[in-house]
Specification:
The protein is mainly beta. It has a single domain, classed as Ribosomal Protein L24e, Chain: T (Roll), CATH 2.30.170. The chain is built from one helix and four strands. The strands form two sheets. It has a two-stranded antiparallel sheet. Strands 3-4 form a two-stranded antiparallel sheet. Strand 3 and strand 4 form a beta hairpin.
């Protein structure tokens, strides 16, 4: 499963964890994705993977 929001396209971001001694290790921040049943434009109910920000903002219409 690709970790991408189907509504806004939010995806993982990469960067570094930096310690006090300035040691760098790679880190990956992943979006908080949930599988939600939603009503599509044609009236069909479909299960989609959406970030919690889109659910909270009302971009997903639940049946």
């Amino acid at each position: 499963m690709a970790k991408i929001c189907e509504v806004c396209g939010k995806r993982p971001v990469v960067g570094y964890n930096i310690s006090h001694a300035h040691n760098k290790s790679k880190k990956r921040w992943e979006p908080n994705l949930q599988k939600v049943r939603s009503v599509q434009k044609n009236g069909q109910v479909k299960r989609i993977t959406v970030c919690t920000n889109c659910i909270k903002s009302g971009y997903v219409i639940k049946p």
